[in-house]
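Re: export button greyed out
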Amino acid sequence: MDIRSLCLGALMAGDASGYEIRKMFEEGIFSYFQMASLGSIYPALTKLGQEGLVTFTAQEQENRPDKKVYSLTPEGRRTFLRTLFQTRPGEDRYRSDILFLLSFAHELPVELCEALIDEYSSRQEVMLEHIREAKCPTKSGPGPENTENPCQMAGPDFIGGLGEAVCKATLDFIDKNKESFLTELRNRRAGRP
Amino acid sequence: MDIRSLCLGALMAGDASGYEIRKMFEEGIFSYFQMASLGSIYPALTKLGQEGLVTFTAQEQENRPDKKVYSLTPEGRRTFLRTLFQTRPGEDRYRSDILFLLSFAHELPVELCEALIDEYSSRQEVMLEHIREAKCPTKSGPGPENTENPCQMAGPDFIGGLGEAVCKATLDFIDKNKESFLTELRNRRAGRP
DNA sequence: AATTGACTATATCGGTTCGATATATAACAA
DNA sequence: TTGTTATATATCGAACCGATATAGTCAATT
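Workaround output, generated via the alternate export path:
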């Protein structure tokens, strides 16, 4: 997905400034499976404006830099929908420095390995919490359990549920295997001084 | 992780040509959590050579272009290990066109949504199979070594197990939720024609 | 009272990296 | 014959990230 489509997609949810679009990719709905930086968003918005796919209105603010609020034009909306239909989705890709480092566990001190695993865990926990906050915001309080299907599934809910399942599986795996992995590493270390 | 470290890491497993390094990132052990293209590997190897971190011997082959087999120098090995210790691991990132497309499910025909989910599933299945083949190898070749500890966890096994758990959780979630999701989409569609 | 740090907000630039392409050959299939 | 797949190196343009510059508000700490 090129950034221009990403920006159009972000604007499908409503008007937004470049800064707000970045937040959608950093903290919002898209943050789990796409990313875009300011360094690409601003040029993309400019170009999309030249092509007539978005427009903006500069909101003057007191003593603040103008906020350019972008909106999709009808043509922009059409273009994005065409993109949705025509795109042959590229392969998923997952990139993790921690797992790369851990793949050299046999070269590292056991304490460092444990720290890496704990870091990985805690990041997953943060993510899980984040996903849970984002979905079903209404009934956060008294519900004792997730009953059958209290929320109905739109795209984002389905994806959120998937993310939740993946995070839980990750945490569960680490919980069940971390100690034996570290023990194994220690044993090997003892075997050859 | 910059590509130079990635190349050094690949060479930790043994001597290899640029082409072979790419395969490690496309099909091999690293493919689940890192990637590197030929367009960056070759320049990186050249640079590493200039810095004395790798050397190569050109293997002449009959009627084929020479194969440059790179190896780590002692200095290269030291540099990589230092990197392992010092690197503050960057955030994991997952990128998925399919999930991005699916986040607009309400704008798409239900059939397309289903096709996207099925595509996602089948890719996960391929990946799961791939992980399972890689670990606990069924000994296709006459490899003399690496049978000493069949079921114990080194770094790659731990990561493989994690990948397996995640794939299974993904497939399981889709299996349990796909139909209700599609039904829900259809109902909404029927509600407003 | 003053400084620090965090947040909002736009914009640009350098450097890294991808993806496509060129070149060359072999093996195999249609 | 032609096409496709695989091995193998190499380069180049385009895309993109990350850092930085600018500039103001606000709250907290010193």
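Residues 17-20, 38-39, 42-43, 46, 61, 64-68 of chain B lie near DNA strand D (CB under 10 Å from a C1'). The button fix ships in the next patch.
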